[in-house]
Specification:
single chain, alpha+beta, about 40% helix, globular, binds zinc ion
């Protein structure tokens, strides 16, 4: 799990994840993180020279205009122009990943958009497909402006849109509020592309295959996934963790009633038997002491 508070360590861990999961190759990719006014960014040629086994000490720190604070600015990744322009344009963005994900690149090589067809991509990307920016020289200011323009258009259509784009015959850029978000966007987008390719391979010419999305969900629909949901109906009788026969009472009901009322309403079944707890704890302690 990436600990986003340990910035240099997290960049190295994400680098390993990218190469191990075929989200990039040895020819390129770069990762950066913003921490207030500082930018942490990996060295150039981390793939070709180090096979993505990069060290925390190799991460270079600069300000938002690439003025160096720690490390040699001359060693900063060649894609710095796009990273810094994204940070300068989107103050809420704190992490950027550029990588060469195999399945997304299949779409890029055909100048095709990637529609959302997985639960993850529909939640995060919403209704917008991942689109291609016009081809430009890698690492150029022209590429930086095209990527930022693509991101601006995504946000014009949907102010909550995840920032992600494909670059034909090259790779992709994604940007998030933190490094976990950016990594998830890359992972989800590549899986979405993978699913589309596999689906086409297996069913593309089968007239019986229905490739449509039958039910349209909005981002608001998906946001209900985060809402706490009860898994029992009030009144459901069961044995609790202590083996005590109990009647389930919804937390909402508990909030509105005093303890006495709850016990009364539940006919005493839900009151915790303190003697029983004491006896269980005593039994466990005795076993622990005897086991020494
Ligand atoms: Zn690249």
């Amino acid at each position: 799990m990436v600990d986003v508070k340990k910035i240099r360590k997290s960049i190295c861990e994400v680098a390993a994840y990218l190469i191990n999961k075929d989200l990039t190759d040895l020819s390129g990719g770069n990762i950066s993180v913003r921490d207030k006014n500082k930018i942490y960014i990996n060295e150039r040629l981390s793939g070709p020279n180090y096979q993505w086994k990069i060290e925390e000490d190799s991460i270079i720190v600069t300000d938002i205009c690439k003025m160096p604070l720690i490390g040699d600015e001359g060693l900063i990744t060649r894609e710095a122009s796009t990273h810094y322009l994204i940070y300068q344009t989107f103050p809420e963005i704190n992490a950027i990943i550029h990588c060469h994900p195999l399945f997304m690149m299949v779409f890029g090589a055909a100048h095709m958009d990637i529609p959302s067809v997985t639960e993850g991509s529909r939640v995060i990307l919403g209704d917008q497909p991942i689109t291609n920016v016009e081809e430009s020289i890698p690492s150029s200011q022209d590429q930086a402006e095209k990527v930022v323009d693509n991101f601006k258009k995504r946000r014009e259509k949907d102010s909550n849109a995840a920032l992600i784009c494909n670059i034909p015959f090259h790779g992709m850029f994604t940007a998030g509020a933190n490094l976990n978000d950016a990594l998830v966007y890359a992972d989800i987008a590549n899986n979405c592309a993978k699913l589309l390719i596999y689906r086409q391979l297996m069913f593309g010419n089968d007239p019986a295959a229905d490739l449509s999305i039958r039910k349209h969900f909005t981002r608001e629909d998906f946001s209900t996934m985060d809402i706490f949901k009860e898994v029992c109906k009030p009144g459901y009788v069961y044995e609790d963790a202590f083996g005590q026969k109990t009647k389930y009472i919804s937390p909402e009901f508990k909030q509105n009633k005093s303890d006495n009322e709850i016990n009364f309403t539940a006919n005493g079944l839900n009151s915790i038997n303190k003697d029983k707890i004491v006896s269980i704890v005593t039994e466990i302690l005795a076993k622990l002491l005897n086991s020494k």
